[in-house]
């Protein structure tokens, strides 16, 4: 949570919602232009403890999969950042990756996922990146 909060504060210089990048104009067949969304969910809970694997699995099943039923990936990553006292902070993190072909229709879905996670696990934010890709099977 601390790592995600610090990363978010570094990006929170504007009050306008993030605008998705424009999808790539051309992709070699059979690939199609898409948006890759990366959400970094810190697992530390303020006041102690951590979001368990079971809690995470239920969150994905209840909140993420219904919004992105076509597929997603989850990786375990080690988050790291520095605080204002120049101390290195580390936090176990879940990286959720979704490839989206209907951008920007995904914005409301992502916002709902982030709001539920923050509320359910006492988080302050979820770090997010988006970039255009060519994707397909």
Q: What this model shows, in words?
A:
- This protein is α+β, with helices and mostly antiparallel strands and 137 residues long.
- It has a single domain (2-135), classed as Alpha-Beta Plaits.
- It is 27% helix and 31% strand.
- It contains three helices and four strands, in the order H-E-H-E-E-H-E.
- The chain has helices at residues 2-11, 53-64, 107-121, and strands at residues 32-42, 73-82, 88-100, 127-135.
- Strands 2-3-1-4 form a four-stranded antiparallel β-sheet.
- It starts with a helix and ends with a strand.
Descriptors:
alpha+beta; 3 helices; 31% strand; four-stranded antiparallel beta sheet; 137 residues
Radius of gyration from CA coordinates: 16 Å
The low-confidence runs, each spanning 5 or more residues with pLDDT under 50, are 2-16
Structural class: alpha+beta
Count of separate structural domains: 1
Instruction: State the oligomer.
Output: single chain
Compute the average pLDDT. Answer: 85
Strand content: 25-35%
Helical segment count: 3
Lateral arrangement of strands in the main beta sheet: 2-3-1-4
Task: Give the % helix.
Answer: 25-40%
| CATH topology-level fold name | Alpha-Beta Plaits
Element order: H for helix, E for strand: HEHEEHE
Shape: globular
The total strand number stands at 4
Distance between the ends: 35 Å
Q: So, CATH architecture?
A: 2-Layer Sandwich
- CATH secondary-structure class: Alpha Beta
Sheet of most strands = 4 strands, antiparallel
């Amino acid at each position: 949570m601390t790592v995600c909060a610090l990363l978010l504060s570094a990006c929170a210089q504007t009050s306008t919602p993030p605008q998705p990048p424009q999808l790539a104009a051309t992709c070699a067949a059979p690939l199609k232009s898409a948006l890759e969304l990366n959400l970094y969910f810190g697992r530390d809970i303020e006041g102690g403890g951590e979001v368990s694997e079971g809690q995470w699995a239920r969150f994905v099943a209840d909140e993420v999969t219904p919004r992105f039923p076509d597929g997603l990936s989850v990786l375990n990553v080690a988050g790291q950042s520095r605080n204002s006292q120049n101390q290195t902070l580390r936090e176990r993190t879940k990286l959720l990756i979704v490839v989206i072909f209907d951008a920007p229709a995904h914005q409301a879905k992502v916002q709902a996922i982030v709001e539920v996670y923050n509320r359910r696990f006492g988080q302050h934010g979820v770090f997010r990146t988006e970039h255009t890709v060519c994707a397909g099977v």
